[in-house]
Every structure is written in C-alpha cells, then in structure tokens.
Amino acid sequence: MANIVAIVGRPNVGKSTFFNRLIEKREAIMDDESGVTRDRHYGYAEWTGHFFTVIDTGGYVTGSEDKFESQIRKQVKLAIDEASAVIFLVDIRDGVTGMDKDFANVLRTSKKPLFIAANKTDTPDKTMLANEFYELGLEAEIFPVSAENGSGTGELLDELVKTF
Ligand code: GDP
Ligand code: MG
Which ligand is nearest to the CA of 92? Predict the structure, then answer.
C-alpha cells in the first residue's frame, strides 16, 4: 500500500508551510491566494529512505458556524479516507481553539495513525506549551515543531515513517 500522509488543521496554523518543508519544493507549491490553499495539493517526500505522498488539505473555511463544521468534517473525512497517516497541525501561539476541538472530534473517528504537530515552536523555550494540546484528548503523540525553521520535524518524521 502506498504511504500517504495528510496534513489537516484550521486555517493559518502553517499547513502549507509544513507541506513545503516536507516536500522541499517551495517554488512549485506556494499558492498565490494570500496564504489560503483552496485545493488539495499533493507532493512527494522522503525521510530516511522511506518515500511517501503528502497531502496539504485546504483548510479553507468560510461562512456561518455550521458551515465551518460541515467543511471541516468534509476536509478531514477526505483526508482520513485517503491517507495512511494523518498529521494534525495546531498553533502553539494560539493554544487550543474551538476549531481545533472541532477537528479533534472528527479525527477521533479515524483509525489511522495520528500525530499532533504543535507548529510555530520556533524556539526551545516554547516547547513546554505543546502539552496544552493533550487537552484535545486525542490518542496521538504531540511534537513541537517549527515549519518555518524545521526544528522538531525530524523527531516527528522518525515516528511517522515507523507507521508505514
Ligand atoms: P495554512 O493556512 O495552515 O496553510 O498556513 P500557512 O502555511 O499559509 O501559514 C500561515 C502563516 O503562518 C504564514 O504567515 C506563515 O509564514 C506562518 N507560519 C507557518 N509556519 C510557521 C512557523 O513554524 N513559525 C512561525 N513563526 N510562523 C509560521
Ligand atoms: Mg494553506
């Protein structure tokens, strides 16, 4: 079976930045829609000899409260169906938000291996803040990462490739 990893999470947590870091093909992927990725992007990545496909899910949510819910559900269900493992990105600067909880509730229904990446942990002094996301009650290890400078991503990928 092909190894397919989906990156999910609410808008602006850094999904596209993280995706670009994993696939190391920045120029091909950065979208021109002011930080908003409308479509699903597919890229190819390699870590310690393991090859896998990465999906950057849209995360583009608009409209009323209940629209949020249904769009999140749709995005996550698609990702779960298609992927062999899921990375749930959250933003360490914002902490746990209501929309993170909405994502968590859908992710709870997945049987796929799940990893939480607490993004924007740009400096080691922020690492402890990642523990806050245990509040989401997911059966997933939490990795403080910085999509921007790459810190912590190796630790996450080491565990991720073990699920292949
Ligand atoms: P997406 O909407 O989830 O795809 O998020 P983007 O990848 O478009 O990033 C949203 C914003 O967060 C952009 O301004 C990024 O530069 C910023 N960002 C992404 N990753 C990091 C990070 O690790 N550290 C910091 N400080 N900013 C980040
Ligand atoms: Mg994006």
Answer: 1
Contact residues for 27 (Cβ-Cβ < 8 A; gap 6+): none
Nearest CA to ligand 1 atom 22: 120
User: Is the CB of residue 30 below 6 angstroms from any atom belonging to ligand 1?
Assistant: no
Rounded distance from Cα 153 to ligand 1 centre (Å): 15
* ipTM of this complex prediction, to 2 decimal places: 0.99
What is the fold, at CATH topology level, of the domain defined by 4-162?
Answer: Rossmann fold (3.40.50)
Q: How many CB atoms lie within 10 A of CB 124?
A: 10
Q: Spell out the domain ranges in the chain.
A: 4-162
Grouping H, G, I as helix, E, B as strand and the rest as coil, residue 112 is coil
- Do 8 and 28 form a contact (C-beta atoms < 8 A)? no
Residues 28-42: tens digit of each pLDDT: 444 444 444 445 678
- pTM of the predicted model over 0.95: no
Task: Point out the ligand nearest to the CA of residue 123.
Answer: 1
